[in-house]
Design a protein that fits this description.
The protein is α/β, with parallel strands linked by helices. Helices cover about 35% and strands about 15% of the residues. It has 4 domains: about 70 residues, no CATH class; about 300 residues, 3-Layer(aba) Sandwich (Rossmann fold), CATH 3.40.50.740; about 220 residues, Dimethylsulfoxide Reductase, domain 2 (3-Layer(aba) Sandwich); about 110 residues, Barwin-like endoglucanases (Beta Barrel). The chain has a 6-stranded mixed sheet. It has a 6-stranded mixed sheet with strand order 30-32-31-34-25-33. The radius of gyration is 25 Å and the shape is globular. The relative contact order is 0.17. The structure holds ligand MGD (2 copies) and molybdenum atom. One ligand MGD binds next to helix 10, helix 18, strand 25 and strand 26.
C-alpha cells in the first residue's frame, strides 16, 4: 500500500473530465482495454448485460453509453486479463496471503479453477468439480441442518437466488442471511410498518414529474452515479434538491454529464443541491422533526390567513393512521433540543420546510446514512411521516426512494432469500415441489455471526461476497471462523473470506454476468431487479475468464444434487440447461410479480412489480399508512454528553465497491494515496490536541470488556460537523461491536460507532 497521502479539497464537478481520466486509468490497469469500448456498448441495454455495480434503475431509452465511471470500473475489474491460477496458489501460502491488502488480493485477477485448502502445505490446491461437489454434499449430509448457513451477497441473479433459497429449504433451514442484512434491512423492516411494502415506491419516470427531491445519507456521485442524470434533468426543470449529509459530497453539488459534448467542452455543469444541510451524524430524526414542526407552523399560518392548507388534510384523513399523536409529539419538541441534536440552526430546518411546503410532488431518496444506525428504523419511518404530511406517497412524481446497494440485492429477497418465514410463500413451495419447508425462522447476518462465535454454526456456504471482511468485529469473527467445520466460497476473485479458513474450505469460481453463459439449450439469460422494482434481462457478451468456470446456477445445482435426495419435481439439470425453466418456476411461485416472466424479459426499462403503496393500497395492520413516533431524537448510541466521544461513520471511497478496492484515490473527496485516514473537524482536532498528518489510533467506547482499537490512521482536517469523524470501510470494521446494530432490523450500525481518538 502507498504510504503517502495527499489531500486537496476537490472542487471540480462529478462526472466531467475527472471521470473520463479515471476510466482510462482503470481500463488500462486491468489490461482489459481492447475489448472495453465494444463491451460498454452493451452496458444496461436491451439485449446486453445489466451492470454489476449498483442497483440504480435502467432507463427505457438508454443513452448511447449507459454507464458511469464506477460501473465501467466494475466491468473492467470483472473482465480483467489477470488470472489467479493454481500456480499462483502453489507459490503463496495462505498465511502469507493473509498479509496482503484487499486491493492486492483481488488485483491478482479472476479465479480460474475450483480449489480446496490443504492444511499440511498451507496452500490451496486444485480439485475437480465432481470431487468438490461430492465431498461438500457428503459433509453437508452429516450436519444438523440448523447449524449450516447459506449466505448470499446481492449480485447473484434471480434465477440463481431462487435455486439457492430452495436448496437451503430442502436441506432443512431458513438460514439465508443476505448482504441486505447489513444494508437496507432497515428499510425492509421500517417501510412495511409504515406503508405496507418492503421496497421503495417510485419509478424512474417519477423523476420527470417531481418538483422537489429530499436526500438523506446517500452518496450519489460514488454509489449510484447514473442517478445523476435524472437529478440533472430535474434541476433543469428547476426542481428543488435538498440534501442532508454530514459531508459535502461532490455528487450532490455539481455534475458535468460526460456524455454531453457542450458540458464537457466548458467543464461547466449543473448545480445539483439547492440546499445543503450538514446534519450531525445520527441527527436526521431531529432535522426531520424540525421540518415537521415548521410545517405545522406554516399550516397554522395558512389556516389563519384562509389560504391553501400546507398539510394534505384529505389525504391524512382518508389514508393515514396516528396523525393526532404525531402532531402532539412534534409540537412538543423544543427548538433548542432539535437544533442541538440535528446540529443545524432552526432557520435551516425552516428553509427546508418552506421549500418542501411549496412543492407539489416530492421524492425522498436515502441510503446508508439513515439505515446503518441504532435507530435506523426510526430514521426511515420519520422520513415517511414527513412525506405523509403532504400526501407525497402514492402519486405521480412523489414517493419513497431507498437507493439499494448490490445490483440484485432487492431481487434476491423478492425470490425467497430471506431468513424470515413470513416473507416467503412456504405453502406454495411445499405444493410446487412436494416437500415440507422448515417453518422456523432462520438466522440473519448478526445471528449467524453470533452462531459462529458460540460454536452453534458449523458450516458456512457463501454465494459471492466477502462476509468475514464486511461484518463488524472483524478480529473476533476471524478467530472464531477457524473453528467452523466447512466453508464453501462461490466467488470470482480472491478475498480475505477465502483465507480465513475452516477445517475444510473450498473456493468455487464462477462466471460473471458479463460473460457468455453457454448451457445445453444455448447461451443463457439471467434477470435482476433494480432499486425501483423493475426486472431486467441480462445477456453475457464476453468470453469466460477460464474454461474451468461454472455458472452460479450450475454450482448451486451441483451442491444440491450431491446433498439432497432426488426429487422429480426439482429438475436441477434441466434448470441448468435452460434458465427459462427456472423463470417458469419463479412465475409459478410468485404469479403476481412474475406472470409471463419469459415473455416480458425484454420490456424496455424493465417490467415493474406491482407495489400496493404506489396505488395507495396500504397493506399494513391498520389498513392505512401509519404515522409512527421516533423513540429518540438522535439515532446513535451516545447522547453526545461526553465531548471526547466522537461519532464515527464508516463510508465508501470513490475507488471501491464494498470490500473490492479498485485503488487508493477518493477523487471526489480529494483524498489520494491511502485509505488509512480519518477525516476530522478542525475544532475537534484543536480540542483533542491532534494535528493534520498525525497518525492516530481509534478506540471504541464499548459496553463490554472487549478492547477494540485500530492504529495507523492519518488525520485529515475535513469539513465534517463537530463531534463526527469519517473513515473507510472495511478497514475500520474491527472497531464496530457486533452488538451495535439497528433495533429491530439488526443492520450493523456502521454510521455511528462511538470512538475516542488516541495519539498512537
Ligand atoms: N461505486 C460503488 N457503488 C456502490 C457501492 C460501492 O461500494 N461502490 N456499494 C453499493 C452498496 S452495497 C450500497 S448499500 C450502496 C451504498 O451507498 P450509500 O448509501 O451512499 O453508502 P455510503 O457510502 O456508506 O455513504 C453513506 C452516505 O451517508 C452519509 N452519512 C453518514 N452518516 C450519516 C447520517 O447520520 N446522516 C446522514 N444524513 N448522512 C450520513 C455519508 O457522508 C455518505 O455520504 O452503494 C452501492 N453502490
Ligand atoms: N463498516 C461498514 N461495514 C459495512 C458497510 C458499511 O457501510 N460500513 N456496508 C455493508 C453493506 S451495505 C454491504 S452490502 C456489505 C457487502 O458485503 P458483501 O456483499 O459480502 O461483500 P462484497 O465486498 O460486495 O463482496 C465482494 C466479493 O464478491 C465476489 N463476487 C463479485 N462478483 C461476483 C459474482 O458475480 N458472483 C459471485 N459468486 N461472487 C462475486 C468476489 O469474490 C468479491 O471479492 O458490507 C457491509 N459492511
Ligand atoms: Mo449494501
Amino acid at each position: 500500500m502507498t504510504e503517502e497521502v495527499t489531500y486537496k479539497p476537490y472542487d471540480a464537478p462529478t462526472g466531467g473530465w475527472g471521470s473520463v481520466k479515471s476510466l482510462v486509468k482503470h481500463s488500462t490497469g486491468q489490461h482489459a482495454v481492447g475489448t472495453v469500448p465494444d463491451l460498454l456498448r452493451h452496458h444496461n441495454k436491451l439485449g446486453g448485460y445489466a451492470c454489476t455495480s449498483c442497483a440504480w434503475a435502467k432507463p427505457a431509452k438508454p443513452h448511447a453509453a449507459e454507464f458511469c465511471e464506477n460501473g465501467a470500473k466494475a466491468t473492467f475489474w470483472d473482465l480483467t486479463s489477470k488470472r489467479t491460477t493454481p500456480e499462483f496458489f502453489a507459490r503463496h501460502t495462505v498465511t502469507e496471503l493473509l498479509g496482503w491488502s484487499d486491493y492486492d488480493l483481488e488485483n491478482e485477477g479472476r479465479l480460474t479453477h475450483p480449489m480446496r485448502y490443504d492444511s499440511p502445505s498451507d496452500t490451496y490446491v486444485p480439485v475437480e468439480w465432481a470431487e468438490a461437489f461430492a465431498d461438500i454434499g457428503s459433509r453437508l449430509k452429516g450436519f444438523d441442518p440448523e447449524t449450516v448457513v447459506f449466505y448470499a451477497s446481492g449480485r447473484a441473479s434471480l434465477e440463481t437466488s431462487y435455486m439457492y433459497a430452495l436448496l437451503a429449504r430442502m436441506y432443512g433451514n431458513n438460514n439465508l442471511p443476505d448482504s441486505s442484512n447489513m444494508c437496507h434491512e432497515t428499510t425492509s423492516v421500517a417501510l412495511p410498518q409504515s406503508i405496507g411494502t418492503p421496497v421503495g415506491t417510485v419509478l424512474l419516470e417519477d423523476f420527470e414529474h417531481t418538483d422537489c427531491i429530499l436526500s438523506f445519507g446517500q452518496n450519489v456521485g460514488t454509489n449510484a452515479p447514473r442517478m445523476l442524470h435524472p437529478l440533472q434533468q430535474a434541476r433543469k426543470r428547476d426542481a428543488e434538491i435538498i440534501v442532508f449529509n454530514p459531508l459535502r459530497e461532490r455528487g450532490w453539488e455539481e455534475f458535468v454529464n460526460p456524455q454531453h459534448a457542450g458540458e464537457m467542452l466548458t467543464n461547466s455543469g449543473t448545480q445539483i443541491a439547492t440546499q445543503y444541510h450538514q446534519v450531525r451524524t445520527g441527527g436526521d430524526i431531529a432535522a426531520m422533526v424540525g421540518m415537521a414542526k415548521a410545517l405545522f407552523t406554516l399550516d397554522d399560518q395558512a389556516k389563519a390567513a384562509g389560504t391553501d392548507r400546507v398539510l394534505d388534510v384529505d389525504f391524512i384523513a382518508q389514508h393515514t393512521h396516528g396523525f393526532a399523536s404525531f402532531e402532539t409529539y412534534v409540537r412538543a419538541q423544543s427548538w433548542d433540543n432539535l437544533e442541538r441534536e440535528a446540529g443545524l440552526a432552526r432557520a435551516a430546518m425552516e428553509r427546508a420546510a418552506d421549500a418542501y411546503a411549496r412543492s407539489k410532488a416530492v421524492i425522498a431518496i436515502y441510503g446508508m446514512g439513515l439505515t446503518q444506525h441504532r435507530l435506523g428504523v426510526d430514521n426511515v419511518q420519520m422520513l415517511v411521516n414527513l412525506m405523509l404530511m403532504r400526501g407525497n406517497i402514492g402519486r405521480q412524481g412523489a414517493g419513497m426512494c431507498p437507493v439499494r446497494g448490490h445490483s440484485n440485492v432487492q431481487g434476491q429477497r423478492t425470490v425467497g432469500i430471506s431468513e424470515k418465514t413470513e416473507l416467503v410463500p412456504l405453502d406454495k413451495l411445499a405444493a410446487q415441489f412436494g416437500f415440507s419447508p422448515p417453518r422456523k425462522d432462520g438466522m440473519n447476518t448478526v445471528d449467524a455471526c453470533e452462531g459462529v462465535l458460540d460454536g452453534t454454526v458449523k458450516a458456512f456456504i457463501s454465494l459471492g461476497g466477502n462476509f468475514v471482511r464486511a461484518i463488524p468485529d472483524t478480529e473476533r469473527m476471524e478467530a472464531a471462523w477457524r473453528d467452523l467445520d466447512l466453508s464453501v466460497q462461490i466467488a470470482t476473485k480472491l478475498n480475505r473470506s477465502h483465507l480465513v479458513t475452516a477445517q475444510t474450505t473450498y473456493i468455487l469460481p464462477c462466471l460473471v454476468r458479463t460473460e457468455i453463459d453457454a448451457q445445453a439449450s444455448g447461451p443463457q439469460i439471467v434477470t435482476v431487479e433494480d432499486s425501483t422494482t423493475c426486472i431486467h434481462a441480462s445477456r453475457g457478451v464476453a468470453t469466460p475468464a477460464s474454461e474451468h468456470l461454472l455458472s452460479e446456477p450450475a454450482i448451486v445445482a451441483g451442491i444440491a444434487k450431491a446433498t439432497l435426495a432426488p426429487n422429480p419435481k426439482v429438475p436441477w439439470d434441466d434448470w441448468v440447461g435452460d434458465y427459462g425453466l427456472v423463470r417458469d418456476a419463479i412465475a409459478q411461485t410468485y404469479p403476481d410479480d412474475f406472470h409471463d416472466f419469459n415473455a416480458r424479459l425484454d420490456t424496455p426499462g424493465g417490467f415493474p412489480r406491482p407495489i400496493g403503496a404506489r396505488e395507495r393500497k396500504w397493506e399494513t395492520e391498520t389498513g392505512k399508512a401509519n404515522f409512527l413516533l421516533p423513540k429518540a431524537l438522535h439515532a446513535t448510541f451516545d447522547d453526545g454528553s461526553q465531548p471526547e466521544v466522537l461519532r464515527l461513520m464508516t463510508i465508501r471511497s470513490n475507488d471501491q465497491f464494498n470490500t473490492t478496492i479498485y485503488g487508493y484515490d477518493d477523487r471526489l473527496r480529494g483524498i489520494h494515496g491511502s485509505r488509512m485516514i480519518v477525516m476530522m473537524n478542525a475544532e475537534d482536532m484543536a480540542r483533542l490536541g491532534v494535528k493534520a498528518d498525525d497518525v492516530v489510533r481509534l478506540e471504541t467506547v464499548g459496553d463490554d470488556e472487549m478492547v477494540r482499537s485500530l492504529a495507523g490512521l492519518r488525520v485529515i482536517e475535513f469539513d465534517v460537523p463537530r463531534g463526527c469523524i469519517a473513515a473507510y470501510y472495511p478497514e475500520t470494521n474491527p472497531l464496530i461491536p457486533l452488538y451495535q446494530h439497528a433495533e429491530e432490523s439488526k443492520t450493523p450500525a456502521a454510521k455511528s460507532v462511538p470512538v475516542r481518538v488516541r495519539l498512537a
